[in-house]
Amino acid sequence: MFELNTKSYSFYQPKKKATQVCVQIQRKRMAAKDSENGAFMEKFTLKPDSSSPQLPLTGLTFAVKDIFDIDGYVTGFGNPDWARTHSAATSTAPAVLAILSAGATCVGKTVMDEMAYSINGENVHYGTPTNPCAPDRVPGGSSSGSAVAVGAMLVDFSLGTDTGGSVRVPASYCGILGFRPSHGVVSTRGVIPMAQTFDTVGWFARDPAILKQVGQILLGLHDVSSATPSKIIIAEDCFKLLSFPHDRLTRAIVQSVEKFYGSHSIQYASLGNYVEEKVTSLKHFHNTGNQEYNIPSLAALSSAMRSLQRYEFKKNHGEWITTVKPSMGPGISERVWEAVRSTDEHVDVCQRVKTELNAALTAFLGDFGILALPTVPGPPPKLQAEPSSLEIFRAKAFSLLSVAGVSGFCQVSIPLGMYENLPIAVSLMAKKGMDGLLLNIVETIYSTLKELFKTAGH
């Protein structure tokens, strides 16, 4: 899936040009941080190939996460030692080229978590982008700057990547739409790999129409306006993981679905029990930590995902890490070195889990079924919170996030509004390949869903 252009990168040897670029980036960021929420690594303008007004994205601006290759620029991967030891890219990622060809203008690269190994959005080297919805809270990662750029209205949309949740999480924290496509449907060439089994190119927008337009370009979709869901399944057990009253949220979903698709479309299920029954290989990952506050089968699913993620991350970057010994922030450093020291134990079992889950959820949803569940278990954590205090929150979050990650299904995070002055989101998920259906549903129900959530609080 990944075809890393080794000609674009020179490992281990510091390049004078790259070092100069790092210094320039730091200076530009210091000047831009206050006015642009600290979202950007570097500002520049890449204009579309054509100025034709007929192109679908003409007049729109976008930014890209600093994990995508842009010809002539160093791809920084969120870490100054990475930028220092790699040369400028010699080509541009196809996903970026597709967006440019559709008429949009790229205005720069955005801050990301180091080596894409966090969902917090805090970067000790380049600063943490300011969450436009809650400045005292984390913006979410690892596509932090891309989400903030959209949330702060600096661009119309942006590109990020989602491996374990790196588009869905910052979208939910920053009060915007975030789309993780079906695994493998958007090219990841020219994107630094994190863990190929889970890596996807995702995108953010404030407007569901723009979210859909960008999706049609990246996914190569034609008209999908006629696609409608056959059923919407509310994962009741997943909503019970929320740290605030979940009835208000599920009521808004149900009422929105009833309005557009009829009450017969609504179903309820325990996702955890279904996964427990159908994904038998998960027995190898049970009892891997305290699960009394979680859904056991989904906690095991998360454990399997993170195990395979560590293995693939090590294969991709272990040699560079052990040779360069880069400076990394707290939390990320521990995770990176844990991955480097990991073994390939259970890798085959992880692949069986992936196959079994995909088959089980495909049967569960059918061709046009939708699964509704929380994106994350609550509002964004406070800035610089102690990692130990986030342990339960992270465990619940990855249990929810791993469902789409391991199955390869598509998922969209939809902002509902604010609860006690903090952003709240819900997710919809469809089977692999039904991305167009999901984009169409979001466009249809978005305004009503937000309004119903708002009025449910009065």
Automatic annotation (TrEMBL):
Superkingdom as given in the UniProt entry: Eukaryota
Protein name from the UniProt record: Amidase domain-containing protein
Domain Amidase: 51-439
Originating organism: Cinchona calisaya
Gene Ontology molecular function, alphabetical: hydrolase activity, acting on carbon-nitrogen (but not peptide) bonds, in linear amides
Stated family: Belongs to the amidase family.
PROSITE patterns, A to Z: AMIDASES (PS00571)
One Pfam family of this chain: Amidase
